[in-house]
Write a structure and sequence with these properties.
CATH topology of the largest domain: Chloramphenicol Acetyltransferase
Helix content: 25-40%
CATH class of the largest domain: Alpha Beta
Number of domains: 2
Strand content: 15-25%
Largest sheet: 7 strands, mixed
Radius of gyration: 26 Å
CATH architecture of the largest domain: 2-Layer Sandwich
Number of strands: 21
Length: 493
């Protein structure tokens, strides 16, 4: 019997995925839940397990292809075997997977249909946990921690993102395909406009010809794109672009997907595409404001030096970022406006009574912001361990989509790149983001004299709809007070 496996919903409503690599080839024999491919979504690289035990009859896409959810992925020859049962996993298994997947079926078979026909119609969503084995036994939970080498928090923070940090989580982001008509999609293609970016600037709206033309007018067009738009669309914006474009020798403009010694073209997809959409939405939606504070943190660095000699903390690397994270959690309790969300649809301001702390990480795949849930309930050691763990996972490209959702406030460490300050862009759905600058040994006034002190700059960007200047200043001062005198953390609640 031949069974066709369709690309399942990979979680959070993502419409497509790119094939990173195949782990099987035509003719290979596979077992139930064997990894058959790795795919990249806008948020993470996900392993796809086999829903069947049988022989791979055909692969419907090649590495590098972008496949839409619901499109054929693999065909299996099941021979005389039965298809895997699409039974839903337990709640515990789903939590372990962290992918938020939902089991679905393609269509209901007639009541009198043969059993193998019904099995062939089933398409379990397998991401994260795989199909339920026939025995119903669940894999044992993997042990955590014990004996694993810990990662230096400050070194892990070298994955922290620069000033243009935007989370790739689904909060308030246009994850679904932009709504538009075929003529509008053709116009966008002719003008070289990405409808995802247009939709980010007009959330919840159907994209119109006017939206596309407005976006194209603000974006410099390549001569070849503008010329194509004039020939096919005939709109005035494209004609203006052609008229304003200087002639370019054909050799300097290679065709799409090719490169020469003058330029390289890279398809916009995956994390980079989603980050761009998030940046556009955040910039066009929330009125940004940024405030800065430079301070002496010598007391914090002296505390960290003493902790390194504490035998009780062997195996734990606590750095400046962990202290900052703890200070942020304490300060948010005193300034709840920075731990809130502007809900435009409901016409409400939603204050969170917990802190899900995002830590920006720059990876080879692009920018991601994994979240530490309930960070306000963790002590300093647990925070440092959580930062190190999420940084290592992000660096390996294994951060689960669910681990990048639900953040309420974010931190980005630009100091590891030698940057003193910046104006970070808010993550969509959050009221604030704090950038931590470089730690420098600097001449500084101390007790009426000039001395060499450890100094850094904090940069706080905030949504001015939710937070006024006084609240932002109070929050920044609370964070700074802990860094100036870590003992003050005992007084904050």
């Amino acid at each position: 019997m031949i069974a066709e496996f369709l690309l399942p919903d990979l979680g959070e409503g993502l419409p497509e995925a790119e094939i990173v690599q195949w782990h099987v080839a035509e003719g290979d024999t596979v077992t139930l839940n064997q990894t058959i491919a790795e795919v990249e979504t806008a948020k993470a690289i996900v392993e796809i397990p086999s829903p069947y035990a049988g022989t791979v009859q055909g692969l419907h896409a090649a590495a590098g292809d972008v496949v839409e959810v619901g499109s054929p992925l693999v065909s299996f020859d099941l021979g005389g075997t039965d298809a895997a049962s699409p039974a839903a996993p337990s709640a515990e298994a789903t939590r372990e997977a962290g992918a938020g997947a939902v089991v679905e079926t393609v269509a209901e078979a007639p009541l009198d249909a043969p059993a193998d026909d019904i099995a062939a119609r089933a398409t379990p969503n397998l991401v994260g946990y795989g199909a339920a084995p026939a025995s119903g036994n669940r894999p044992k939970r993997r042990a955590r921690g014990g004996g694993t080498a810990m990662i230096d928090s400050d070194h892990a923070v070298r994955e922290a993102a620069p000033h243009d940090v935007v989370k790739t989580g689904p909060i308030d982001l246009p994850l679904e395909r932009p709504r538009s008509t075929p003529p509008v999609r053709k116009l966008a293609k002719d003008l070289g406009v990405d409808l995802v970016l247009v939709a980010a600037a007009h959330p919840g709206e159907t994209i119109t010809r006017g939206h596309v033309e407005e976006f194209a007018a603000r974006t410099p067009a390549m001569p070849e794109v503008a010329a194509s738009a004039t020939a096919h669309a005939g709109d005035t914006v494209a004609r203006a672009n052609v008229a304003a474009s200087a002639p370019v020798p054909p050799s300097t403009v290679p065709s799409a997907g090719r490169s020469d010694d003058r330029m390289t073209r890279t398809p916009i997809r995956g994390v980079r595409k989603h980050t761009a959409a998030a940046m556009v939405q955040s910039a066009f939606t929330a009125p940004h404001a940024t405030t800065f504070l430079t301070l002496d943190v010598t007391a914090t660095t002296e505390l960290l030096a003493s902790l390194k000699t504490d035998r009780a903390l062997d195996g734990h690397r606590i750095g400046v970022l962990a202290i900052v994270a703890k200070a942020v959690c304490l300060a948010l309790g005193r300034t709840p406006a920075l731990n809130a969300k502007w809900d435009e649809a409901a016409g409400e301001i939603v204050e969170h009574h917990y802190v899900n702390l995002g830590i920006a990480a720059a990876t080879d795949r692009g920018l991601v912001v994994p979240v530490i849930p309930d960070a306000d309930r963790l002590d300093l050691v647990d925070l440092a361990d959580a930062i190190a763990e999420l940084a290592a996972t992000a660096r390996a490209g294994r951060t689960a989509p669910a681990a990048m959702t639900g953040g309420t406030f974010s931190i980005t460490n630009v100091g590891v790149f030698g940057v003193d300050a910046g104006t970070p862009i808010l993550n969509a759905g959050e009221a604030g983001i704090l950038a931590v600058g470089a730690l420098r040994r600097t001449p500084w006034e101390h007790h009426g004299e000039i001395a060499l002190r450890d100094v850094l700059t904090l940069s706080l960007s905030f949504d001015h709809r939710l937070v006024d200047g006084a609240e932002a200043a109070r929050f920044l001062t609370d964070v700074a007070d802990v860094l100036r005198e870590p003992g003050r953390a005992m007084l904050l609640r």
